[in-house]
Amino acid sequence: MRIERVTNTVSLKRTIDSGTEEQRKAVLEILAQVQKEGDNALRSYTEKFDGVFLNEFKVTDSDFKDAYAKLDENMVQIIKEAAENIRDYHSRQTRQSWMTMKDNGTILGQKITPLDAVGVYVPGGKAAYPSSVLMNVIPAQVAGVERIVMVSPPGKDGTIPAGVLVAADILGVKEIYKVGGAQAVGALAFGTETIQPVDKIVGPGNIFVALAKREVYGNVDIDMIAGPSEIVVLADETALPNEVAADLLSQAEHDERASSILVTPSMELAESVAVEVERQLLLLPREAIARASINDFGAIYVTNDVEEAIRVVNELAPEHLEIMTKDPMEKVGKIKHAGAIFIGRYSSEPVGDYFAGPNHVLPTNGTARFSSPLSVDDFTKKSTIISYSKQAIKDNAPKIAAFARLEGLEAHARAVEERLK
């Protein structure tokens, strides 16, 4: 793992993968076919890309029963407990509608309304994540979304991974379809004979899913265009090299393009972590993926002191940030940009991925500078409330009319002046 002395600035910001022109053309073709042919297009693409022909896409009670039979009961209980933690955390994010009245009778306010329907994309194959079900569905449920639709690509046996179905069933999600890729995004956005359209699409996917989400934005809302996973560990000489290395590799095993960075003022720690990363790499089942990630996107930045290390962290604006220093809580206030902050040696990043409660859908690629984790707010919309009294319009109509005429909008001015006649 390369070690660099920080001389000026560093950057984790990589260009968001926009795909190749061929990939974009393929996605546009798929979306067009789904709009034109509906279910027939879904069947054709599912057979082409997933290797299975399906007459019916909807998951049945029998599918749920088979999923439970495949999953250990202890694992079912773990998923239930994780769901409780996640629901408890997100229930604290809810906002209430409000109104206020001024002395002249003016009423102003804000009305919070949940979205009617949300589609949740859950990856399949080697990236089948039950945790994605929990993190995307629960905040929508807490927000009050009435219809939650889940799509996930089937395996060659025509099934969705057991953990994914069990997680969905625990949450009470029953409208689930065995369809993935850009065609699933198209079905959620435009609708087919079987799948009714939704208002927003959330959840991770491959480059074709990401491109499809980008193309349908405007017809529906989307959560974000997420890049590869990232972790930055801010550590000093008090951190243990084996723990730092393990946390760096926890993200490296996600994807060859994942980024794992250590920022430290300690050269001794830097050198020890580099050795430990190599030792632990040899023991990983996904060694090839993790090694490619570490070689291409991994780094150890050595700074002059902790203050400079914090500056570097804020420049990186990482998806995940671990603070493994002496008195880590004292450093939190100086962190301006990070999707999720893990404080202290016992707060390893996977704690947040699966169990603690906060959402693991986080801004990547430096977008933590201006965006936030998925939350209950993402599944609501806000309407402003304005009620002017007779006295209020009498007092303010001349000012409003003057403002309208400043912008050259005479009809605006006359609309308020009509009330004074």
UniProtKB/TrEMBL annotation:
Keywords: Amino-acid biosynthesis, Histidine biosynthesis, Metal-binding, NAD, Oxidoreductase, Zinc. GO terms for cellular component: cytosol. Its cofactor is Zn(2+). GO terms for molecular function: histidinol dehydrogenase activity; NAD binding; zinc ion binding. Pathway: Amino-acid biosynthesis; L-histidine biosynthesis; L-histidine from 5-phospho-alpha-D-ribose 1-diphosphate: step 9/9. It holds the Pfam family Histidinol_dh. It comes from the Bacteria. Binds 1 zinc ion per subunit. NAD(+) binds at Y121, Q183, N206. This is Histidinol dehydrogenase. It comes from Bacillus timonensis.
